[in-house]
Amino acid sequence: MRAGRVQKPARELFRDATFPASESSLFFNLSTPLAQFREEITWRRPQEICTTPQLFPDNPWEGQVKQGLLGDCWFLCACAALQKSRHLLDQVFPPGQPSWSDQTYRGLFICRIWQFGRWEEVTIDDRLPCLAGRLCFSRCQREDVFWLPLLEKVYAKVHGSYEHLWAGQVADALVDLTGGLAERWNLKGPAGSSRQQDRPTGGQEHRTCWQMLRLKDRCLISCSVLSPRAGARVMGEFHAFIVSDLQELQSRAGQGILLLRILNPWGRQCWQGLWREGGEGWSQLESTDEARLLSQLQDGEFWVEEGEFLREFDEVTISYPVTEAGHLQSLYTERTLCHARALPGAWVKGQSAGGCRNNSCFPSNPKFWLHLSEPSEVCVAVLQRPQRRTEARARPLLGHGAAPASLSGKDYQAVGLHIWKVEKRRVSLPRVLSAPPVAGTVCHAYDREVHLRCELSPGRYLAVPSTFLKGVSAQFLLRVFSTGKMSLSRAERPAAQGTDPRAALPADQVETMQLRGCWKAGWTAGGSRNFASYPCNPCLPFSVPEGAGPRCVRITLQQHCRLGDSQLHPIGFHVFQGQLSLLRS
Question: What is the model's pTM?
Answer without folding.
Answer: 0.78
